[in-house]
Design goal:
The chain is α+β, with helices and mostly antiparallel strands. Helices cover about 30% and strands about 35% of the residues. A hairpin with a 4-residue loop joins strand 3 and strand 4. It is globular and about 40 Å long.
Length: about 140
């Protein structure tokens, strides 16, 4: 699927969150995420990469913001972005397996309906990124 203007807006919102910052227990804001709900609201979040495995992905943060600040659970589109210092540019990254599962677990309809932006010029349905359904 090709990207739309709304997708580009989400990418820009995710980029705006990226600004790696060292904290006493690790690093935060290496990755930014933005999601658009089915009803048209946008929620964002940044990652926390903390010692001892504590922390979470930017997509988790964006989803937690959606849950915390609305009654919505359906994700229309989601993206995650980081800054590649070697290439000196932002890059879009697909969600990890844990994030993919979380999207489905907050609303089973997300499996078939959520668009995941996986690169600068491509998006896929969540169900294409998940292997066999287990729940």
């Amino acid at each position: 699927m090709n990207l739309t203007k709304k997708d580009e807006e989400l990418i820009e919102k995710a980029k705006a969150l990226v600004g790696e910052k060292k904290v006493s227990g690790g690093v935060v804001k290496e990755v930014g995420s933005a999601l658009l709900t089915k009803e048209g609201e946008i929620f964002t979040g940044a990652n926390l990469d903390l010692w001892c495995g504590i922390g979470f992905c930017a997509e988790h943060s964006a989803i937690a913001n959606m849950i915390s600040h609305s009654d919505e659970t359906q994700i229309d589109t989601i993206v995650a972005v980081y800054y590649d210092e070697k290439e000196e540019r932002f890059k879009i990254i697909p969600p990890c397996g844990r994030c993919r599962e979380m999207m489905e677990l907050v609303d089973k309809r997300n499996r078939e309906n959520t668009n995941v932006i996986v690169s600068e010029n491509k998006k896929m349905k969540l169900e294409e990124l998940l292997p066999a359904e287990w729940i």
